[in-house]
Design goal:
The structure is a single chain. The chain is mostly helical. The protein has a domain of about 160 residues. The chain is about 75% helix and about 0% strand. It holds the Pfam family PAP2. It comes from Takifugu bimaculatus. GO terms for molecular function: sphingosine-1-phosphate phosphatase activity. One of its GO terms (cellular component) is nuclear envelope.
Length: about 290
């Protein structure tokens, strides 16, 4: 019995030392004994008393973050279904438009038989390019100005001045719409030098088709032509619009919309037709600038 008591006393005396105070359970149970002891024992007892609260505070913070993230995850799905429904369940109009665009692109690529020299009709590329050049805006503007300088009749000058204004309106309108839509052709091709001058960089609407339709309708309305010439003029307008599709620079819908826009330009010029006196005044103003040249 005495040896056991001596061993217990030695153990208590060792645990009462400052360096082993953290191993002694008594200061943790009773806070007063640790605070009433000396300076060496009060410091470790306070630190040991603060540790459980710090651990609780540290463990409580991670537990709050998952709850916040979980609540955010629950709130976010409630905002997304509207956009998901628009993407996963498109309307019938959207499906129809996408289907028509896909068909348009597929047919336009198949009809681009003169897009490159290695294409199926690559040998006719130069001929088709020359046909497209006859409907270019720069070609028609230069030709109209030359004819206007050579014309001596008031009726001819009136028709040519209105045709020149119609060509300028057509070029500006088509260029503005192309800049807004910015649709590329079915084949990736860089525009030519004349295309940059005429501001015919994009595909929609077809500038050549619009100009050909407007010019042919204009000439058929204001010139007296025989029936074969009328048929050839209409055929020329159609082939000019089709040439750009064969060259792979425009789609079928671009050509169709170009024809419609050309007819609209013709109707617009008919409503704002300039009289002979107005045309003469414009010619007199313009001749002051180029009279030294002619």
């Amino acid at each position: 019995m005495p040896p056991r008591r001596s061993r217990a006393r030695e153990r208590n005396s060792v645990l009462s030392r400052p360096e082993f105070i953290s191993l002694n359970p008594q200061p943790l149970r009773g806070g007063g004994s640790g605070s009433g002891s000396g300076g060496g024992g009060s410091g470790p007892s306070r630190s040991s008393a603060r540790r459980p609260s710090q651990l609780k505070h540290q463990t409580s913070q991670p537990s709050e973050e998952p709850t916040d993230s979980g609540s955010r995850d629950k709130k976010e799905p409630s905002k997304m279904p509207e956009e998901d429904c628009m993407q996963l369940n498109p309307s019938f109009k959207g499906i129809a438009m996408n289907s028509l665009l896909a068909i348009d692109i597929s047919l336009s690529k198949r009809m681009g038989v003169c897009a490159y020299t290695s294409s199926s009709w690559g040998g006719c590329r130069s001929m088709v390019t020359l046909l497209a050049l006859t409907g270019h805006g720069i070609t028609w503007i230069i030709g109209t100005i030359v004819c206007l300088t050579r014309s001596n009749t008031l009726a001819g000058q009136e028709v040519l001045v209105n045709l020149l204004l119609a060509l300028i309106v057509d070029i500006m309108t088509v260029a503005g719409v192309q800049r807004l839509v910015k649709r590329r052709g079915p084949w990736e091709m860089t525009p030519g030098f004349l295309d940059y001058i005429a501001m015919d960089v994009y595909s929609f609407p077809a500038a050549h088709a619009s100009r050909a339709a407007m010019v042919s309708k204009f000439l058929l309305s204001h010139l007296v032509l025989a029936v074969p010439l009328r048929i050839l003029l209409v055929l020329w307008a159609f082939l000019v619009g089709l040439s750009r599709v064969l060259l792979g620079k425009q789609h079928l819908t671009d050509m169709i919309c170009g024809f419609a826009l050309g007819m609209l330009h013709f109707s617009l010029m008919e409503t704002v037709w300039l009289s002979s006196n107005t045309c003469q005044s414009l010619i007199n103003i313009s001749t002051l600038s180029w009279s030294p040249l002619f």
